[in-house]
């Protein structure tokens, strides 16, 4: 039997902070909102016209402490992987965004926010490849970045199709509705190009061009490429995922040996963040389990700075 809860809350976390986290996770989760019959985050009932919908994950008042915490203070190695430690940090400091999807994007979106803040000056021009629902692009635009999203919004890789809805909900994000690279010239004044759970869906014979073209956009200014890539370590599709990951890393000019070392570390590290059984079951949808069996999926994080 638990004794009386101390004044500081359970395990040193105040009751108020606990309640805030639970409310943020519940109120901003697409799954729970759907089950409760509520509108999706990007089209909230009663939203202020012209408001950026990412504010429904992290409000303006909470945004600036995040900027102060991570700006210039999130060094990135060329190759790393998602960890429970990093997710816990995000759950503490980017609570709404860390509970927006109940899958690995909760980890990856927050990591990307921290990576951009830590390595790209605010006010810089940045580009996201294949944003889907542009929660990260929207949040970065609110932090002062000039954000362009390139996405055809045709549902590839189980992505969303609601282009007009997103365009209305994120008025300060510039959208180009095409696959990357788009037909229109983009210029070479970007300071960062990034993607979240996208490159693994690009066909193998096209992925090197996507990565190389993206980095050319930032090379002249000494900018950076930042990519969070879903990677299947075990289960169906593991060999294909490894082949594509090798191609992505090679296109960025990253070390083949370091990639192999990080993959080996992922396999044995108890801190490695893996997609949960619950998230897998939601991805499975109506498919019989035998048609969509469990896999070990983590996030490989790639970073290249300069030309």
Kindly describe this structure.
The chain has 307 residues and is α/β, with parallel strands linked by helices. Helices cover 41% and strands 14% of the residues. A 7-stranded mixed β-sheet has the order 1-7-6-5-2-3-4, sandwiched between helices. It is built from 12 helices and 7 strands. It is globular and about 45 Å long. It has one domain (15-305): Vaccinia Virus protein VP39 (Rossmann fold, 3-Layer(aba) Sandwich).
Structure summarized in a few sentences:
By secondary structure, this protein is an alpha/beta fold.
Name the descriptors.
globular; single chain; Rossmann fold; seven-stranded mixed beta sheet; disordered N terminus; 307 residues; alpha/beta; 41% helix
SSE series? HHHEHHHEHEHEEHEHHHE
The CATH superfamily is known as Vaccinia Virus protein VP39
User: What order do the strands of the largest sheet run in, or round the barrel if closed?
Assistant: 1-7-6-5-2-3-4
Question: What is the helix content?
Answer: 40-55%
Rounded to the nearest angstrom, the distance between the terminal CA atoms is 60 Å
Integer-rounded radius of gyration = 19 Å
Q: Identify the CATH architecture.
A: 3-Layer(aba) Sandwich
Total strands: the figure is 7
The CATH class label is Alpha Beta
Q: Shape from CA axes? A: globular
In percent, how much strand structure appears in the residues? 5-15%
State the secondary-structure class: alpha/beta
Poorly predicted segments:
1-11, 33-39, 41-47
């Amino acid at each position: 039997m638990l004794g009386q809860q101390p004044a500081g809350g359970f395990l040193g976390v105040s009751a108020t902070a606990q309640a805030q986290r639970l409310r943020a996770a519940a109120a901003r989760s697409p799954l729970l909102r759907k089950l409760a019959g509520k509108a999706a985050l990007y089209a909230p009932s009663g939203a202020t016209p012209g408001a950026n919908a990412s504010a429904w994950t992290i409000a303006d008042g909470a945004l600036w402490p995040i900027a102060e915490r991570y700006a210039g203070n999130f060094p990135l190695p060329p190759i790393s992987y998602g960890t429970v430690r990093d997710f816990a940090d995000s759950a503490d400091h980017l609570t709404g965004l860390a509970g927006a999807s109940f899958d690995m994007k909760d980890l990856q979106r927050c990591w990307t926010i921290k990576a951009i803040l830590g390595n790209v000056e605010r006010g810089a021009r940045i580009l996201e490849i294949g944003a889907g629902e542009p929660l990260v692009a929207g949040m970065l635009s609110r932090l002062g970045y000039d954000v362009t999203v390139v996405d055809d919004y045709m549902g590839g890789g189980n992505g969303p199709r609601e282009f007009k809805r997103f365009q209305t909900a994120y008025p300060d994000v510039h959208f180009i509705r095409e696959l990357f690279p788009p037909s229109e010239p983009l210029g070479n004044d970007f300071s960062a190009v990034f993607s979240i759970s996208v490159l693994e869906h690009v066909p193998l014979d096209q992925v090197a061009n996507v990565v190389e073209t993206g980095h050319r956009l930032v090379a002249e200014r000494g900018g950076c490429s930042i990519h969070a890539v879903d990677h299947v370590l075990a289960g169906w599709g593991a060999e294909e995922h490894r082949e594509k990951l090798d191609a992505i890393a090679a296109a960025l000019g990253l070390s083949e040996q370091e990639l192999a070392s990080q993959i080996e570390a992922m396999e044995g590290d108890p801190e490695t963040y893996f997609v949960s059984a619950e998230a897998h079951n939601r991805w499975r949808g109506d498919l019989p389990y035998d048609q969509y069996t469990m896999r070990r999926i983590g996030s490989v994080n790639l970073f290249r700075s300069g030309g």
